[in-house]
């Protein structure tokens, strides 16, 4: 397969991978709030973190040792797609009598199999690019940017599409059905991707760690990797906060007479999609910044961008202060990409081929696993205290608390982490 063809194939894979997520990730919080589950929003988003504590690492081991990664990607999307579509169908039939337990159980299974696909899709792409003789640091970001395009397309689709009763998909069960259908399509498509050979079976004298793929955890023995993973967890705590609450926060202005008729209050998902549009540009900057400044400074830029992301939300509104929301969306591209994509590339560039899928799974465990689950749980307590359980909701205070947390993490990282690109002790 020629280089142009493989680039197009990987573009389609990334487009579908993140379109699956974009169909519901930023709008699910608003749907839950409108269906009496506002106080449980944190749990739904923290669940993505809970399952990422173990599922990406386990699935990565399977892809490294037993089943080719593209087949693992297919199986995971098939299960995730069926159960996510099931969430939508159940919610459609339940109407106003939506039962938390039933809906959550299907959602749990779906995200348990979806979350590992992010790291596995990266491994499939890196493998294909290396087979084509490409430099992954230069070749991957322009391909990965189409994942963000897919995410944006689905955000806008569910924002503007309406069901037969005139309800926008972002506020209805249709967002879950759309996600499920796309996931099943990707399950089929994944089987056509280049083969990712499993690593040779371990010899009888191989250690248990080598035989199972858990050797990726030995990366913690290296000081730079240990600190990198720990701060990946701390920064990962910020990842799902705006996905959890931004839609509900912006939509809540529609209940205030002064903002009820503003475009932003009526089209929260479309406004938030500016964040992903910013991502498409920031991804393309990563090769330059990684080569020029190294992982430490790229991560620091991401950390301080999170401070601005939250702070601008606290200061803004969809009326005269909408420009602050727009600025928040612009810096989000830096906050997300300079952390997630650069971190993934750093792991790929600095680990042995025999443990790369496992190492990517470990990165996911620390960020979207431990970090996101702890962060979303803590954010839930903050938002429930200041908003959902408060007599007078105080969204700005919640956003300022999140901004303060991100600032502290950035300062500590600046002090403790030594850039491996600079030969410092």
> Count the helices. How many?
16
Determine the fraction of residues in helical runs and give it as a percent range: over 70%
The SSE string, one letter per element, is: HHHHHHHHHHHHHHHH
The dominant shape is globular
CATH architecture: Up-down Bundle
What is the percentage of strand-forming residues? under 5%
Low-confidence stretches: 421-425
What is the structural class?
mainly alpha
Instruction: Give a quick account of the main beta sheet: strands, pairing sense, barrel closure.
Output: none
Count of spatially separate domains: 1
The mean pLDDT is: 85
| Tally of DSSP β-strands | 0
Gyration radius over CA: 21 Å
Distance between the termini: 44 Å
CATH superfamily: MFS general substrate transporter like domains
CATH topology: Growth Hormone, Chain: A
Give the helix/strand layout:
Blueprint: H1 3-22, H2 28-34, H3 41-52, H4 55-65, H5 69-94, H6 100-131, H7 136-160, H8 174-190, H9 208-212, H10 223-236, H11 241-251, H12 263-266, H13 268-315, H14 322-349, H15 356-388, H16 395-416
Helix pairs in contact: 1-6, 1-7, 1-8, 2-11, 3-6, 3-15, 4-5, 4-6, 4-15, 5-6, 5-8, 6-15, 7-13, 10-15, 10-16, 11-13, 13-14, 13-16, 14-15, 15-16
């Amino acid at each position: 397969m020629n280089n142009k063809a493989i680039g197009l194939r990987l573009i389609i894979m990334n487009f579908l991978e993140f379109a699956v997520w974009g169909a519901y990730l930023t709008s699910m919080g608003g749907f839950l709030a409108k269906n009496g589950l506002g106080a449980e929003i944190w749990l739904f988003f923290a669940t993505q973190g809970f399952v990422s504590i173990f599922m990406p690492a386990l699935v990565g081991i399977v892809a490294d040792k037993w089943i080719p990664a593209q087949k693992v990607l297919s199986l995971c999307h098939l299960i995730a797609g069926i159960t996510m579509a099931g969430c939508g169908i159940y919610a459609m039939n339940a109407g106003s009598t939506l039962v938390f337990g039933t809906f959550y159980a299907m959602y749990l299974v779906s995200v348990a199999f979806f979350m590992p696909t992010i790291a596995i899709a990266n491994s499939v792409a890196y493998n294909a690019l290396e087979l084509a003789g490409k430099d992954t640091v230069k070749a991957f970001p322009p391909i990965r940017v189409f994942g963000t395009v897919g995410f944006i397309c689905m955000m806008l689709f569910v924002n503007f599409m309406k069901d037969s009763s005139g309800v926008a998909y972002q506020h209805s069960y249709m967002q879950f059905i759309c996600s499920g259908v796309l996931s099943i399509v990707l399950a089929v498509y994944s089987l056509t991707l280049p083969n990712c050979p499993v690593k040779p079976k371990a010899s009888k004298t191989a250690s248990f760690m080598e035989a199972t793929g858990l050797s990726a955890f030995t990366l913690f023995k290296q000081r730079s990797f240990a600190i990198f993973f720990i701060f990946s967890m701390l920064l990962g705590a910020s990842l799902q906060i705006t996905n959890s609450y931004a839609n509900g926060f912006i939509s809540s202005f529609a209940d205030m007479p002064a903002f009820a008729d503003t475009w932003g209050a009526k089209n929260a998902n479309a406004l938030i999609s500016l964040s992903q549009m910013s991502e498409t540009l920031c991804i393309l900057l990563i090769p330059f910044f990684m080569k020029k400044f190294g992982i430490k400074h790229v991560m620091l830029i991401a950390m301080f961008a999170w401070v601005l992301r939250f702070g601008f939300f606290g200061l803004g509104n969809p009326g005269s202060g909408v420009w602050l929301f727009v600025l928040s969306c612009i810096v989000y591209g830096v906050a997300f990409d300079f952390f997630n994509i650069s971190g993934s590339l750093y792991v790929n560039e600095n680990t042995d081929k025999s443990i790369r899928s496992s190492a990517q799974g470990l990165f996911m465990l620390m960020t979207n696993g431990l970090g996101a689950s702890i962060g979303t749980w803590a954010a839930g307590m903050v938002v429930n205290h200041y908003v959902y359980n408060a007599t007078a909701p105080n969204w700005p205070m919640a956003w300022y608390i999140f901004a303060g947390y991100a600032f502290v993490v950035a300062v500590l990282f600046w002090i403790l982490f030594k850039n491996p690109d600079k030969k410092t002790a």
